[in-house]
Amino acid sequence: MRHKFCLILALAMAPPLLADDDIGSGIVIPNEHGINGFAPDWDADDFDLAAYLNGLHPDANLWYQHVQTLSNPWMGGRQPGTPGDELAAQYISWYFDRAGLEPAFEDGWRQPFEFTLGRALPDVRAAAISIDAANVRAAAMFIDAAKFARGEDFGVLANCGTASASLPLSFAGYGIDAGPEGYTSFAEDDDLSGRAVLLLRYEPLDEDGQSQWSESDFSPHSGIREKFQALIDRGAAAILLVNPVDAVDGRSGLETIASTAGFRPDLNIPALHLSQETASHLLAHASNGTASLEDLQQDANEGIAGVRHFDDAAAITIETDVAAPSFNTQNIAGLLPGTGELADEWVVVGGHYDHIGHGYTGSRAPGDDRVHPGADDNASGVGTILILADRLAQSAASDERPRRSVMFITFSGEEAGLHGSRHFIDNPTIDLDKTNFMLNLDMMGRLRGDTVALTGTGTAEEFDEMLPRLVEPTDLTVSTTASGLGPSDHSNFYRQDIPVLFFFTGIHDDYHTPEDVSWRVNPEGTLKIIDLCEVILDEATHKPEPFTFTSSTAGTAARETGSKVRLGIMPSYTAGDVSGVLIDGVTEGTSAHEAGILEGDIITAWNGEHIEGGSDLMKHLRAHKPGDEVTITVTRGDESLDLAVTLKGRK
Q: At CB < 8 A and 24+ separation, what contacts does 9-12 make?
């Protein structure tokens, strides 16, 4: 395990390439708080604004201009796929061209790609149910001559899948496999293959409309996940949920996509919520008037087991077209060709240019639909990339030394899950095997107390010697972490065995809110980091031998989750529709590491209870304390493994 170190640097607006006689007073201290707890204190009482503005270096002014432009409300928060995204892309590519870079892709500066938003609320393109197939309409319901409208007579559930089929109807009561005192909704041989299944919500009611199994509200047997899974296990082709008649504690009205965001499992079949009137119409049709919702509910309340199938000829046509929101966007990149025997090796300087628009994902101000400008996150990093591109291009014009080629790249889709950098890694236009180093610049604008975080210092053998030497002459305190993993784009390069460094000036209350505005950034402070980045890049591009990659997850930051224990995994940000939690990395010395959990495993259960995604995993973590022993089930290749885990406290 590599130790962490912290460096104090002494540079007061000096040229970036330091003379041999520059003298500093650097010290080394450990980062005790992790990346998410990094928030330096500083004293802003004694500050002369006029003198500050008049004394700024031209590059600090230019960087500030970049931040102001990219975080202007006109950019709309740079949400992928929006006009603001396009404006930002044009701005970045224009400055790359102005700096003298070459377009990085076959078609120019852009690498287009599409991504979906994972567990975001789906878009419903069509939803229809009818008796006569000729009456199927998008987002409408027709039964005989009566029209039933989505939102009034039926709703689409958030875990609904996409399908279109004519199906016979069945009734499965409350859909409970095993309740108290031997209660079950199913006979041993019940088969729902190819059928639309009408399902009562909650659990058996007494004659007063209250649960038979709970003194208040409902028991755990009423859970949606278990009910739906029981139908799926028996082959159901569509689920039609209906509230029981006269349920005292039940919800009234129809559920919506938003109100059922927590419904699981995610399905590949239709899942609709019907009004009681609509359900009655369907039953009347399917049974030729011999069955009513009230009578069937009474049978279910009395514990009469077995699914009721209706006439196959009285089919119901159901159509749903549901998809996760998708976004079309692009990475923007330019190249600075190298020279001599190093020209076919690469250094990457990158950072994301997207932000969260009006809060489409990850907002810390839920319900506030104002523009989230993203000045620090990450107009500040893009501004740094543009300054460095200009500096390195200018110095290259008179540099006769052998030099590695440099790619300057700004990623989109980072805020929704590192999608842009993942797409580039999967579709590289440079040789990743000859990529020597990646420098990631994300949230560079809030330097406080001249203290900056640097992650990835354990990913190359040479960093232990190089970094103290390069940073010692400056005025910065650099708080370092060895791990190459973290919640930003460098992680995808680290997984390709590429040494990485990631600069970050710390979390703040404005992060992912409409208050992350340009007048709160620190141009003079960021220029100090830019100067340091330049000397690091000068060494990375000119040193005769490439950096020697070393694997390091030591010190990977623990996210703030509200739990007293930490598992020690890095969940995948790009796992898509995986059921469970796909692990992109495991931190050394943590509970997961000691239990034998590996990168690439998928966590599928906790003490036998199914894990659908990250929210399920966090629910279990919050329920435990240090020292608790649990069994975590993982899928590893074709195997399912039960691993004993002793939970450790958060550090």
A: 9/471, 9/472, 9/473, 9/474, 9/475, 9/476, 9/477, 9/478, 9/528, 9/532, 10/472, 10/473, 10/474, 10/475, 11/473, 11/474, 11/475, 11/476, 11/528, 11/531, 11/532, 12/475
